[in-house]
């Protein structure tokens, strides 16, 4: 594509009356150049078993093509029709809570042979119907796919085969998982119990890893089918989502984005985030960084909010701010869920670009300005490439392991809270990052790698991190890193195990802090922001220097934060959960040591700077104001031109950013 894609999900099947031509006219006026269709309406396309009707698909394809609007067709496999469940109730996933009940979406067992038979049939029938249509630019596989906690007898049998292939003997399995505890050891494969009731973290975590692989396999299976029909130049994508906390928050526990994205041409994501006074852009940035990092290339935002809920209805200017925030992170597509607000059922008040009256409104009118600017500026701002020198290493396995072994038994704090504690402060320091995973092979591309809570890791990964530091890299490790191997088996050495070599510190004891502050640190944090909470390790430096200790009568002799020169590099180890202000100070010190700190890091949030190189080889700088207050700074950039206003700025001249507004600067 030679232009940014600006789109909506469109469901002609949901419309209360005939208005396709009206919708298309309004889309064109708003600069909408792509729609997603078909992924939600299996029951319309196959109203009875073996009876197919693609009338709604065909009429939308024809109308969009006539209007010059591209179409992405979705495979409609994530919401099964009533007739299937009536005839074959076994297609519903059996979870730890028992047999599923019909009604909601994503309730099926993605491994069930009957479900897969019908899924393949509807995919092939749909593809045979649409494959030659010139409106189609790509296909979306399923929708926000996960394993839906499927764990019934058939899945358990598949898991046993998986364990046989991996461990070969039950003795090896028993030893690695410590199954002798409470007589859980297995001495014949046919005696293997269901994982549903397990109390063994190694066994349970391995099953979670297996479930994530089911998602990989299911998506790759669909991709292979669609590839048989797609034309040259058409892409295949999927709309991955994130851990959900009422909005997109962190690493998805039920999907490994890095392995699941492998068969796709483009990684697509759905990013939803707080708005109004709570809009910071952090979730937009985090979701985009994950998506971009899966393939080290640009990505699509296949769903984001237009109006949605009452607490998400954007202030004037915020829809524009959000759209360009996606592009600044590397998105080549921004699409809303959805075009119209629906009038019945579960998502009635998840409003679209149009409200329930389906008429023009302030949000739609603001969308018009986005569409116009996307069209005008595409050659300057699409395909934005980044060369970040900072990365965060994330691990699905560690996320799962820490769900089994929490920081505190009655605490809801989890792995993603620590990832976001680090990410959010980097974001506010205007440090852009890539996201690494345990299989990444390009550690050496980064000057600083931050490793949050790498609780579960094979020896090889920890050795690689040691080597990264030894060869000149800078690393920050947090508490609970290096603790257990890939099977969640705690290492028998003093902690943090293998990375003690790079970190120059060890410990044997960890405690829950009560009224504990940090002492002796140089992070310039106010005293009331100096407290630690939930988890602290009592560190003893071996070769490391102590950067902070605990201000506590019993634990004051122990280090809390250390730094160690190892080979040509430097490793910081944080042994406790600190405040966001303290984390910012730790990161600032590390960034300066790694020579990443610059003038842009002196610019403070709510101003956020994003950078990249466009197709012309020019550096583009975005400056966003995520606040109600007018912001003014002296430009830290060389001579630049604002692509929105054509104003020219010299280094040191005032840059004034209006509330919830931004500038796009091209460096001269």
In short:
The chain has 668 residues and is α/β, with parallel strands linked by helices. It folds into three domains: 5-78 and 110-123 and 136-145 and 230-381, TIM Barrel; 390-595, 3-Layer(aba) Sandwich (Rossmann fold); 604-667, Golgi alpha-mannosidase II (Immunoglobulin-like), CATH 2.60.40.1180. The strands form eight sheets. A nine-stranded parallel sheet has the order 7-6-3-2-1-13-12-11-8, with helices on one face. It has an eight-stranded mixed sheet with strand order 15-14-16-17-25-24-23-20, with helices on both faces. Strands 27-28-33-30-31 form a five-stranded antiparallel sheet, covered by helices on one side.
Throw out a few tags for this protein.
668 residues, Immunoglobulin-like, Rossmann fold, EC 3.2.1.23, eight-stranded mixed β-sheet, zinc, nine-stranded parallel β-sheet, hydrolase, 3 domains, alpha/beta, 33 strands, beta-galactosidase activity, TIM Barrel, Beta-galactosidase, 17 helices
Describe the fold and architecture.
The protein is α/β, with parallel strands linked by helices. The protein has 17 helices and 33 strands. Helix 15 (459-470) links the parallel strand 16 (448-451) and strand 17 (474-478). Helix 1 runs parallel beside helix 3 and helix 14 (415-428) crosses helix 17. It is globular, with a radius of gyration of 26 Å. The two termini are 26 Å apart. The model has no long low-confidence stretch (mean pLDDT 97).
């Amino acid at each position: 594509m030679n232009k940014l894609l600006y789109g909506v999900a469109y469901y002609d099947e949901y419309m209360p009356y005939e208005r396709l031509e009206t919708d298309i006219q309004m889309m064109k006026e708003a600069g909408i150049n792509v729609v997603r269709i078909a992924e939600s309406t299996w029951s319309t396309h196959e109203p009875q078993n073996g009876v197919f009707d693609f009338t709604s698909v065909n009429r939308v394809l024809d109308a969009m093509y006539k209007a010059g609007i591209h179409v992405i067709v979705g495979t409609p496999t994530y919401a099964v029709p009533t007739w299937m469940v009536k005839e074959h109730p076994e297609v519903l996933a059996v979870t730890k809570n028992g047999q599923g009940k019909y009604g909601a979406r994503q309730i099926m067992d993605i491994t069930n042979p009957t479900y897969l038979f019908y899924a393949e049939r509807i995919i092939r029938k749909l593809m045979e119907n649409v494959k030659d249509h010139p409106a189609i630019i790509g296909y979306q596989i399923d929708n926000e796919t996960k394993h839906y906690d499927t764990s019934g007898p058939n899945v358990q049998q598949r898991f046993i085969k998986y364990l046989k292939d991996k461990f070969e003997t039950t003795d090896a399995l028993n030893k690695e998982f410590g199954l002798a505890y409470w007589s859980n050891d297995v001495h014949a494969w046919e005696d293997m119990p269901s994982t549903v009731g397990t109390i063994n973290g190694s066994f349970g975590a391995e099953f979670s890893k297996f479930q994530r692989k089911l998602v990989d396999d299911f998506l790759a299976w669909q991709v292979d089918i669609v590839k048989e029909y797609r034309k040259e130049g058409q892409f295949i994508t999927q709309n991955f989502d994130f851990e959900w906390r009422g909005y997109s928050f962190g690493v998805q526990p039920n999907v490994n984005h890095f392995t699941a994205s492998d068969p796709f041409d483009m990684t697509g994501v759905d990013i939803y985030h707080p708005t109004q006074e709570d809009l910071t852009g952090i979730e937009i940035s985090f979701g985009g960084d994950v998506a971009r990092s899966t393939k080290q290339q640009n990505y699509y935002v296949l769903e984001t909010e237009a109006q949605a809920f009452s607490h998400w209805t954007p202030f004037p200017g915020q829809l524009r701010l959000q759209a360009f925030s996606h592009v600044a992170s590397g998105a080549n597509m921004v699409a809303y869920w959805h075009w119209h607000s629906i009038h019945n059922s579960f998502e009635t008040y998840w409003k679209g670009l149009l409200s329930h009256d389906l008429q023009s409104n302030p949000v739609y009118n603001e969308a018009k300005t986005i569409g116009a600017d996307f069209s005008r500026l595409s050659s300057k701002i699409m395909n934005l490439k980044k060369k970040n020198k900072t990365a965060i290493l994330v691990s699905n396995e560690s996320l799962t392991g820490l769900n089994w072994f929490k920081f505190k038994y009655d605490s809801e704090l989890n792995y993603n809270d620590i990832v976001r504690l680090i990410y959010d402060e980097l974001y506010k320091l205007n440090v852009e990052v890539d996201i690494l995973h345990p299989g990444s092979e390009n550690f050496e591309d980064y000057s600083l790698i931050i490793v949050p809570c790498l609780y579960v890791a094979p020896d090889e990964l920890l050795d690689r991190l040691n080597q990264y530091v030894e060869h000149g890299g800078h690393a920050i490790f947090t508490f609970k890193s290096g603790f257990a191997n890939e099977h969640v088996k705690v290492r028998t050495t003093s902690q943090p195990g293998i990375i003690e070599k790079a970190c120059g510190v060890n410990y044997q004891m960890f405690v829950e802090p009560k009224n504990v502050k940090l002492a002796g640190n140089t992070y310039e944090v106010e005293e009331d922001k100096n407290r630690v909470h939930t988890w602290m390790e009592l560190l003893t430096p071996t070769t490391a220097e102590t950067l902070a200790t605990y201000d506590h009568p019993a634990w004051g002799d122990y280090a809390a934060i250390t730094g160690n020169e190892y080979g040509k590099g430097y490793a910081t180890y944080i042994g406790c959960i600190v405040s966001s202000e303290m984390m910012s100070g730790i990161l600032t010190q590390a960034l300066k040591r790694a020579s990443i700190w610059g003038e842009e890091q002196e610019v403070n949030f709510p101003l956020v700077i994003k950078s990249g190189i466009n197709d012309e080889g020019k550096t583009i700088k975005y400056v966003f104001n995520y606040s109600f207050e007018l912001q003014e700074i002296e430009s830290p950039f060389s001579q630049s031109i604002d692509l929105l206003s054509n104003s020219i700025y010299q280094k040191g001249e005032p840059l004034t950013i209006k509330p919830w507004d931004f500038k796009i600067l091209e460096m001269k």
